[in-house]
Specification:
Elements lengths: L9 H4 L14 H10 L5 H13 L5 H10 L5 H14 L1 H12 L6 H10 L5 H10 L4 H13 L9
Helix pairs in contact: 2-3, 3-5, 4-5, 5-6, 5-7, 6-7, 7-9, 8-9
Length: about 160
């Protein structure tokens, strides 16, 4: 979820609060506006738009393209949210991005969740390394490791 700072965009501020707390099904015009705001110069607007769209149930080539673009955002939170959204939609496309994230020392819980959604054996060594220094997320990392080891994200609470 985005940092606690509220977005500057009036459009984002007027969305019902409940949409910001769970997966949402937006009307097509809302999806289009979120994709536009994912390119906004304002970090908070990009952060919220990426979060909301990544948590939505919508999927299209345009959404995948927007998530891939924001996966390389300079803001680590935006990048993690985009990769998580991508992992939920296109496991193969997200695998390399998740692996890159797992090699960094500063991780977000969303990066571990994304690994769990990808569920590929190539992520297990990196997740094992993370588990040695990030004990506070031991349960989540363990589930992600199992998902990747056995290739069954649904069996471990992902998807």
């Amino acid at each position: 979820m985005p940092k606690l700072n509220s977005p500057q965009s009036f459009f984002l501020r007027k969305l019902p609060v409940g949409w910001m707390m769970h997966r949402a099904d937006f009307q097509p015009n809302v999806v289009q506006r979120l994709m536009e705001l994912m390119k906004d110069d304002n970090v908070s607007n990009r952060d919220w738009a990426t979060f909301l769209l990544s948590q939505s149930s919508h999927n299209s080539p345009q959404i995948i393209k927007a998530l891939i673009r924001n996966a390389s955002d300079n803001d680590a939170e935006i990048s993690s949210e985009a990769i998580l959204g991508l992992a939920q939609r296109q496991r193969v496309a997200a695998r390399r991005l998740v692996l890159e994230k797992l090699t960094r020392r500063s991780l977000d819980v969303k990066d571990i969740e994304a690994a769990g959604y990808v569920g590929h054996q190539s992520l297990v060594p990196s997740l094992n390394r993370v588990s040695r220094w990030w004990q506070s997320e031991e349960e989540l990392i363990g589930r992600a490791i199992s998902s990747c080891r056995y290739g069954k994200p649904k069996d471990y609470g992902f998807c």
